Amino acid sequence: MRKRATAKEVAEAAGVSKWTVIRAFKPGASITDEAKRKIMEAAEKLNYSPNLLARSLSTNVTHQVAVLVDDFANPQKLPFLESLTERLQAEGLVAMLININNHFDHVHALLNADQRLVDAIILLGTAFRDETLNDRRLGPGMPPMFVLARDSQIEGVPAVVCDSEVGLRDIVDHLHERGYRRPGFMTGASALSTALKRRHHFAEFWRQKGVDHIVDISAERYSHEDGAESARRYLQETPASERVDVLMCENDILAIGAMETARSEFGLRVPDDIAVVGFDNYELGGTPAFGLTTYEQPCREMVDLIVEMITGKREGETISLPGKLVVRSST
Fold this sequence. Notes:
This protein has helices spanning 7-14, 18-24, 33-46, 52-59, 77-90, 106-115, 130-133, 164-177, 198-208, 224-237, 252-264, 299-310, and strands at 64-69, 94-99, 120-124, 145-148, 159-162, 183-187, 215-218, 246-249, 275-277, 294-296, 319-321, 324-326. By secondary structure, it is an alpha/beta fold. The radius of gyration is 25 Å and the shape is elongated.
């Protein structure tokens, strides 16, 4: 590994003290124009740049934000990550991505982020439980936490989320107007404190229209494979005359997997034999191959709000934003 030039070496080359070099790279610090000129010339010659991590030891601010993700099989995470990292970088912050998996659970991820002195933690679609945050290893000095793209029922942890109640009302109104009366709902991975609540609102709005029975179909993960397998299992076990006439999936990748299985393995026509609806407006769902009716989350607006909370420009509070119903050929 290359040896970094130090502030001491720059100071010797410029004929000043090490502390003068440090002040030269600190915005607003008192230093003469001549001293700063000498320091910058020496720094350029030595290819020196300030050590931000070392500076954070004195300021207690690292400008790093940990982003915890545990469902990479869901492609909708990519647009959120792209928008989030872009917005953080525009504020002079850097995202530290932490993959939650079988070898690195939520508690260990939080402890790891705390040890790296991050300024904040964003839970991006992670299934956090109250008992996780009550773990005795997590002390009161943990960085502030925020939930993005899911509801939060955890006290002191604000969330920015797409308003699922408004979204599911619009979806059910659309399906009811199209004449569907035997709805089913495919859920993804179970999540307690940061639940999506889409299944709850879907059932409630159908009850208001006189439809009390919702067929439940469960997938273990938010993935194409799990959506396909769950649809396969349901269609194999259910006679054609008893099947749902519309299947609402908790997100688009489940809907795409279910739609492919219904068409290719069971010869069903979409929407003639079974209509399919997703949620997120994932890019692939909008192609002619799928024409998936879905609900688009206001991704950029959600990211803007959570970054404003992290940077102190807005009070930390849970906020729900309306999205947009996108009607296509699958319904």
